[in-house]
Design brief:
TorD-like, 9 helices
């Protein structure tokens, strides 16, 4: 296999890793629990323990949805914008990135543009395109500036080991982007 073909396979694998992590940060469903139980997530989120759908949904709601104050809001604007509200200037900056690259938001997905899952999917898109320079710039301007605080919050606040493992896996993948730069 040529170096170019090997790089292409590695790019696809890394892009798939971003996509898997993005899916894991969204509302849990039966498919996620099955992937945990059958070991499908082991390559991306190592050390995941079996957990019920009800426990995952309850913890997801407590950490990321509410009601009430959220221990770990999954939105960049909360961490980066002066007032700590969603849909602030950092959200607009992320949307500008999406438009520049020619990516639209999926109308079937209710997540805000600066949700961790949406940003991870965008990273996967850039990786699949082989646009590593854009990926490096995007990560430096956005995920690198707020993922660490968010992931620290998840690791501290969660009561379910799955989210601790997911935070660690996301941190590892982000660190891998830094190593490629």
């Amino acid at each position: 296999m040529s170096d170019t073909a090997m790089a292409s396979v590695a790019d696809r694998d890394l892009a798939a890793g971003y996509d898997v992590l993005a899916r894991c940060w969204r509302e849990p469903d039966v498919a996620l629990v099955q992937a945990i139980e059958d070991g499908s997530l082991e390559d991306v989120v190592p050390g995941v323990e079996a957990v019920s759908l009800e426990a995952l949904r309850a913890e997801h709601t407590r950490l990321f949805v509410g009601p009430g104050a959220l221990p770990c809001p999954p939105y960049e604007s909360v961490y980066r914008d002066e007032d700590g509200q969603v849909l602030g200037p950092s959200t607009a900056a992320v949307v500008a990135w999406y438009r520049t690259i020619g990516v639209g938001l999926d109308p079937e997905v209710s997540d805000l543009p600066d949700h961790i899952a949406v940003e991870l999917e965008f990273m996967g898109h850039l990786q699949r395109r082989g646009d590593i320079a854009a990926l490096d710039r995007f990560v430096a301007e956005h995920p690198r500036r707020w993922f660490p605080a968010f992931l620290d919050g998840v690791e501290t606040a969660t009561r379910v080991p799955f989210y601790r493992a997911l935070a660690a896996a996301t941190r590892d993948l982000l660190d891998g982007v830094d190593e490629m730069a």
